[in-house]
Amino acid sequence: GDPEAGEMGLAAVPGRQAAFRQGLAAAVQYAKEVGCPRIHLMAGRVPVGADRAEVAGKMEATFIENLRYAADLLAQEDMIGLVEPINNRITDPRYYLNTPHQAAAILEKVGRPNLKLQLDLFHCQIMDGNLSRNLETYFPLIGHIQIAQVPGRHEPDSPGELNFPYLFKLLESLGYTGYVGCEYAPKGDTMEGLGWLRSYWERRGLQDGGTSKATE
């Protein structure tokens, strides 16, 4: 969409289907060039002045239509589409997709195996908490994980509500083998802020880069 016009994705915005498809085609080309097999299909915002409850049905229908179109297009490229719930309590009050429960229900209605849940634990904690059970419940749908500490949205070892060593072990126990995206705002320098990752590797007996010391 057009960020300067207040748009944050178009997939669930009625009347913007043509623009969504145009943006998707461009995203696929970029993804192919950089070798990225996953694309975040952003739902978008409830239109200004509209009542969320009144437009919910139309927005869901638009979302399902666009997701089916996207899934079929992405399947031709062996790519996965991702949908991400973004909290509407702090980050974006007008964003349409807000909880993993809502996302899971929509993915079930869409019925395409190459559409997955992009679960950002920052947003999930703010909207619902209960992270252990939510990860276990929605794990079969998860295609990507993102992290940030709550409420400051900084590094995972910064002061906050989430116990990331526990959450990382839980993800491992569930069999998660994908990337964990660090979608946080560093409190200071980016490289200095990555000290938490080096410390985590050391506690696990790993070297920088996550390789085992025993195999080096």
From TrEMBL:
Residues 8-199 form the Xylose isomerase-like TIM barrel domain. Coiled coil: none annotated. One of its GO terms (biological process) is glyoxylate metabolic process. SUPFAM superfamilies: Xylose isomerase-like (SSF51658). Gene3D superfamilies: Divalent-metal-dependent TIM barrel enzymes (3.20.20.150). The keyword Protein biosynthesis does not apply. InterPro entries: Sugar_Epim/Isomerase (IPR050417), Xyl_isomerase-like_sf (IPR036237), Xyl_isomerase-like_TIM-brl (IPR013022). GO terms for molecular function: hydroxypyruvate isomerase activity. Keywords: Isomerase. PANTHER family: HYDROXYPYRUVATE ISOMERASE-RELATED (PTHR43489:SF6), ISOMERASE (PTHR43489). This is HYI isomerase. It comes from Indicator maculatus.
